[in-house]
Amino acid sequence: MSGETIEVHGRKRGGNVQGINLTAYRLLQWIKSPRPYLMLIGFALFLGFWYLSVEVWKLPRFREMPGITEVIKEWLNPNPTYGLSLYTEEYYQHIGVSVWRVAQAFFLATVLGVPFGLFLGWSKKFKEYVFPVFETLRPIPILAWVPLAIVMFIATESAVIYLTFLASFFATSLNTMLGVESIDESYVRAANCLGASKSQVFRHVIVPGALPFIFTGLQISIGVSWFSLVAAEMVSGQYGLGYVINTSYTMVRYPTIVIGMITLGAVGYVTSAMVRLAGDYLMQWRTRELALGGQ
Amino acid sequence: MAARKTILLDSVYWRGAISIVVFLALWEIGSLSKIWIKWETFEWLRNLLVAFGIKPIYLPWIGAVPAPTEVVAVWAGVLGDPGYWQSWYMSFFRVMAGFFAAMLIGIPFGLLLAVSRPAFGMGFPVFEMLRPIPPLAWVPASILFWPTQEMSIAFVTFLGAFFTIVINVVGGARSIDVRYFQAARSMGSSQSDIFWRIILPGTLPSIVVGSAVGMGITWEVVVAAEMISGGGSQIGGTSGGGLGFFIWNSYVGGSYEQIVVGMISIGIAGFISSELLRTLGKRVTPWLRLR
Amino acid sequence: MMAAAAVAAAPPQTRATRGAIVIDDVVKIYDPDGAAVMAVDHCSLDIQAGEICMIVGPSGCGKTTLLNAIAGFHEITSGRILLDGKVLCSSEKPKADPGSDRIVVFQNGALFPWKTNLDNVAFGPLMQGQLNKSDALEKARGMMADAGLAGVEHNFPGEVSSGMRRRVEIVRALMNEPKVLLLDEPYRALDSLTKSVMHEALLEIYYKNRVTIFFITHDLEEAIFLGHKVAIMTTRPCKPKKILEVDIPHPRDYSVLTSKRFRELMEETNDAVHEEALKAFAAGEKEG
After folding, report:
1. Residue range(s) defining the domain that contains residue A21
2. Can you tell me the distance from the alpha carbon of C225 to that of C231, in angstroms, rounded to the nearest whole number?
3. Does C55 contact chain A (CB < 8 Å)?
4. Which chain C residue lies closest to B291 (C-alpha atoms)?
5. Do C34 and B291 touch (CB under 8 A)?
6. Is the pTM of this model over 0.90?
7. Using alpha carbons only, how large is chain C's radius of gyration in Å?
8. What is the pLDDT of residue C4?
9. Which CATH number goes with the domain that contains C275?
10. Which residues contact B259 (CB under 8 A, 6 or more apart)?
11. CB 3.0 to 4.6 Å from C95: which of A34, A269, B153, C75, for a disulfide?
12. pLDDT tens-digit profile of A4-45?
């Protein structure tokens, strides 16, 4: 009996389905469905409402709001009235600063949080000792730490990164721990039957088994990082997108507020997608399984 | 029941208690480093810090934090201040209001997206585009839009929870096993029957999970908003602004112990609201009780 | 497939000398929340080396507990279990050490989804350091080819059918030359067509390897078709109610299913099984 082969897009694949081909296939399917067109309608409705309410009907509530044409004109203006547009260097500086801060905080939180979470899930004793303290500190909102962070770190740059790190760390370690705990006992038992030592079980079963959860956690974590970063920047910072949004408000540069918001949304989405793609790559087995399931 | 009694003496609780005590002890020692680091015995530590470019006044980071004993002392004093309790009330009120508003609008909206394919096609991409924008980034826009500061805080709070709840509702509704629908249809259910008896209960577990996360986010946003926009009506001292404002005010006023008091208070408040939610959730989904 | 050759009816004691299990008066009492639940009630069973022993009983009756005790996942309350004369577990040592002499094939499959089939199969010897990487992979490839699994080495378990996964799992176990294979309703989730193919595949593997097989099932037909010995268990607490020696000669193929002797054996045991099934149904037992 020969092995089974999988049919993908008319071509037989015996097990080396490339990531890119799968994406291309899925993209084609998406274009053929009604989905992209509905999406356009949705956006049109949303943006249309924004345009009409501010600039055409001039609804009372919306009086102070910057209109969509105003925002777009400003954003695409080589010589912007308020100093920030796609053409100004300052724009990219702010983006760069924010991204760099998130990168540092996220990296640190991952490097510390994943092993910490793995250990919490793996060793019952360790969890019994450490988890109560962890769970007591976790509910404290990150922003409640701001004044204390300023007191502790004096230099506001470190304080901002610390705050972002904290939020990310909690999310990552919690999800990692849950990931380890969610591993089906049968896998560990099977490994034991097959003669694996404890450390081998950890390396070959626990870590790969927890990866899906870990990556979900990392996606949450990066979202949380952006959340904390923006807040921290708004309160105490000198560059960055949060700072931009806040000062635009105080300096009555309203279109820039919206530019800042949109940029934040886009950058946040991109970083989150990057994490997701990294996860998809590391967990080939899962992407293939899901693909075969038609998702 | 003999089995129950022994749980209290269980090692699990002892270990947790020990670690909390150890944590507090380390914190106390760290904070008091302002004092003991000057002693002869710690000359080596002072030199080490200097080598790293840190002024050896106290242990870095932890040294600047007030000690647990100091915090407790201040807290005892604050408990008598009605302004403190009013902060509690304000924050709680904002959180609950924002949260339930988010549920009230978010759950139907999420269900609509899940049930109607055209609605999903149109609404979800816009939703997903707005979702990555951190709620706090909406604060200035919100202030511009809404007449009072209170409403602008409420709006931002609402947004924070709204996105999480909708995502969870949509996810939950989509993951309802298709066989439940098939079973219902084969027994002759109408569309509304299917909605009320399958979709709604089937989504409830996800709603419960979503609300737990949403509650956490709501607290974050409320605290942040209170700190940023000055807490609304400032009737002097510690009153009126909510716990976030309490913390900020303490910082500005130079009372570091009060900062920590505020932080812990918020932690406790957050814990209480999560527990309330969890019990409510269990009531609503009795079938999920573990066997 | 295998032709029905005439071979001696007795179980192949002369061919296999290892893997004899003695379950001696084993009792297992669970204690959930203070209410003692007896899962296994003074169960005694003798399994000979190289024998296929089928354990039949209604869901939730405690058969898995026995298997778990042999494998070393659960403790026993009293009694002993011996493997080739050596004590696995007893009242002094309630939990056996899991080891590669008794390997379990799990109900829902426990192939590591994040490793390819080949890496899964090579896992055991690699972990124990018996072979280096290239030798292990070589041997794995060979064994998979023997079992008719050539071609799916580089797939992940999630990409192949569940029937194929089961076979890979069995090959993974056999790589370690175990004395005993412990199978916990491995074909429960398969349709009956795939099941019949799996049965013949299992027998093929058995004829080449002569391990002792301890096979839990709720399907009496499957039990009589495969086994040398069929132990019908009572509903919880678990205890052998009736032990049947299947005297249909090995090697067997699916024509056995319609043979006169097979039907006779079914008649003998059907009542006993049905009786216990009714009891379990009335008690509302949840599947273990």
Report:
1. 6-66
2. 13
3. no
4. C286
5. no
6. no
7. 19
8. 41
9. 3.40.50.300
10. A147, A148, A151, B66, B247, B250, B251
11. C75
12. 334 444 344 444 445 566 667 777 777 777 777 877 888 888
